[in-house]
Amino acid sequence: MIGYIAHKEMREMRRDGRFQVAAGIVMTLLVVSVAIGWEQYVTVSRQHEQARAETREQWLTQGKKNPHSAAHYGVYAFKPKSPLSLVDRGADPYTGVAVWLEAHKQNEFKYKPARDANTLARFGDLTASSVMQLLIPLLIILMSFSAFAGEKEQGTLRLLLSMGVAREKLAIGKALGIAGGLGTLLVPAAVMGSAALMLGSEEGAFSANLPRLAWMTASYLLYFAAFIGLSLTVSAMARTGRLALVCLLGFWIFNGLAAPRLMSDVSRTIYRTPSSFAFAREMESELKKEQSEEALKRKVMAQYKVEKMEDLPVNFQGIALQASEEHGNEVYDRLYGQLWDTFEAQNRLQQQGAVVAPLLAMRSVSMGLSGTDFAQFRDFSVAAEQYRRQLIEVLNDDITKAGKQEGPHLGDERLWAKAPPFVYEAPGVGRVLSQQCWSLSLLAVWATSGAALAGWAATRRLRAE
User: Fold this and answer.
1) Which of 217, 339, 392, 436 gets the highest tally of CB atoms within 10 A of its CB?
2) pTM for the complete prediction?
3) Separation CA 228–CA 220 (nearest Å)
């Protein structure tokens, strides 16, 4: 009986011109968004690889110069693109893709596409994630708002129940029918997306990202299941299909448009961040509180047990430069740490808003598994900063060990090669899942609650009709 009901629902949906048009539009947008994401991922990855090779070559071939001059010459570090970023660009357009690593400074990230975007960017990018998070739930609503309410109006529901069709089987059959109709759209899209990942990924990258892809697929299925359950619940409780549609569209608007902006404003109000000017001024003020040079000299002379600076067996300039770096590192760790902790507190509060809007949970999980959320940006920033400190320490140590020389001390290719190229390894899927535990749990709650509510409404509310 359940299979027959599901088959009937799918057959009616295929015959419904409205479903065909809506599904065609959504499928077209999915294809276009995946194609755009694939092209952008391949292009940006190729550019990053070329830029990494060029900046490494420039570093190694910069010629003879003072190591401290080389420290200011610096290098670029590029945040690698995750293959799944073709599905969800996340925060990448706003955080930047590269950072300049040089002495004395922890620079901001550069090349933020959002800064160069026009006013149309306010409506968001066309990505596979935006289609799946916004348009497919809308399609589910259009597919299912009349599942029960429409049959009430037509009088067929009473006929079905009088024939002894169990309400539980009717609800399950309709849910499976809607899921089957949705599958005719999602399965081809999933195959196409997987093919794009395979074609765009480097050797071994696709298999390495399979766990992330599997978890992302499961998360979106939970998200869609929640909307199916909710839609069937409202359809069973509403007296007319029009009322069911209005209620569901109201929730869709709240979930997809109002809740994200509302939670963003609330999180920024509760966890305030300083302006760029105020942050830079505080940073400058803290950096000026460096240990005096005379105090450092006394400390170094005591360390090497000499009474005059001329008797030092090392070059004091290198020690002074490294002391300045270490003082700056303490300031950067404290101030950037406070700022980033505030950003993460804002993100956690927005995730908690998923209690009333499942999109907030789905968006967080999608960005996390795509490697484009703030947590993974921070992880890359910390790795790049640690590399900067190691690089500068190598150069300052060379100056220190050079001791006293007649004429300037110059480094060459052998010194530049002591600094290995920057290599970043993204967090594993286990770490991402631990960060997204709350959002994943809420998605599961929404899906199970939707199913439970649909079953309750079908068995309780339909009896009263």
Assistant:
1) 392
2) 0.89
3) 12
Q: Give a three-class secondary structure readout of the chain.
A: CHHHHHHHHHHHHHHCHHHHHHHHHHHHHHHHHHHHHHHHHHHHHHHHHHHHHHHHHHHHCCCCECHHHHHHHCEEEECCCCHHHHCCCCCHHHHCCEEEEECCEECCCECCHHHHCCHHHHHCCCCHHHHHHHHHHHHHHHHHCCCCHHHHHHCHHHHHHHCCCCHHHHHHHHHHHHHHHHHHHHHHHHHHHHHHHHHHCCCCHHHHCHHHHHHHHHHHHHHHHHHHHHHHHHHHHCCCHHHHHHHHHHHHHHHHHHHHHHHHHHHHHHCCCCCHHHHHHHHHHHHCCCCCHHHHHHHHHHHHCCCCHHHCCCCHHHHHHHHHHHHHHHHHHHHHHHHHHHHHHHHHHHHHHHHCCHHHHHHHHHHHHHCCCHHHHHHHHHHHHHHHHHHHHHHHHHHHHHCCCCCCCCECHHHHCCCCCCCCCCCCHHHHHHHCHHHHHHHHHHHHHHHHHHHHHHHHHHHHC
Instruction: Report the alpha-carbon distance of residue 362 to residue 219 in Å, rounded.
Output: 7
Query: Which residues of the chain are under the pLDDT cut of 50?
Result: 118-123, 464
Which residues, 6 or more positions from 83, have their beta carbon under 8 angstroms from its beta carbon?
A: 41, 197, 200, 201, 205, 206, 209
pLDDT at 122: 47
Structure tokens at 421: 């190229």
Q: What is the pLDDT of residue 117?
A: 52
Q: Would you give the end-to-end CA distance of the chain in angstroms?
A: 22
| Residue range(s) defining the domain that contains residue 397 | 2-464
CB 231 within 8 A of CB 9: no
Closest of 229, 27, 226, 220 to residue 147, by C-alpha: 229
Q: What is the pLDDT of residue 144?
A: 86
* Token pair recorded at residue 50: 């070329």
Quote the number of domains for the chain: 1
> Is residue 250 within 8 Å of residue 145, measured between CB atoms?
no
Phi and psi of 459, rounded to 5°?
A: -85, -30
Structure token digits, residue 404: 């006293």
* 99 phi/psi in degrees, rounded to 5: -140, 140
